[in-house]
Write a structure and sequence with these properties.
single chain; alpha/beta; four-stranded parallel sheet; two-stranded antiparallel ribbon; 42% helix; 25% strand; globular
């Protein structure tokens, strides 16, 4: 089974909530106070974002777009947010990522998308 990771960038309220309820879902949860710390981690480890979703606010969204796939970023624009809706958004993005990964076939240097 794939290990899913949830990275929360600069939304401390959301980190507190997710930390309290993380036992109810199978996500590894990481919190980053600064976008530079997250970007450094992404640059150091190319596999860090595999099976990951980044939850961020609008002001940090633009700086992450060139570092990752849009399917991996979930922008939280307004609070309050229903946790059930947030979890649905996270799960939908993880399903999109898994489908994209499974629909590509590499044969030597050729990538076939179906």
């Amino acid at each position: 089974m794939l290990s899913h990771k949830l990275h929360i960038l600069n939304i401390p309220e959301l980190d507190k909530i997710i930390t309290e309820i993380k036992d109810y879902f199978n996500y590894e949860v990481n919190y980053f106070n600064e976008k530079k710390d997250l970007i450094k981690k992404i640059d150091e480890d190319k596999k860090f974002l595999e099976n990951s979703i980044i939850l961020t606010n609008h002001k940090d969204l633009l700086s992450l777009k060139n570092k990752t796939d849009n399917k991996q970023i979930c922008c939280i624009t307004k609070f309050p947010i229903k946790i059930s809706n947030l979890i649905d958004q996270i799960n939908a993005r993880l399903i999109q990522q898994n489908y994209s990964t499974q629909s590509n076939i590499n044969i030597k240097k050729i990538l076939i998308r179906y």
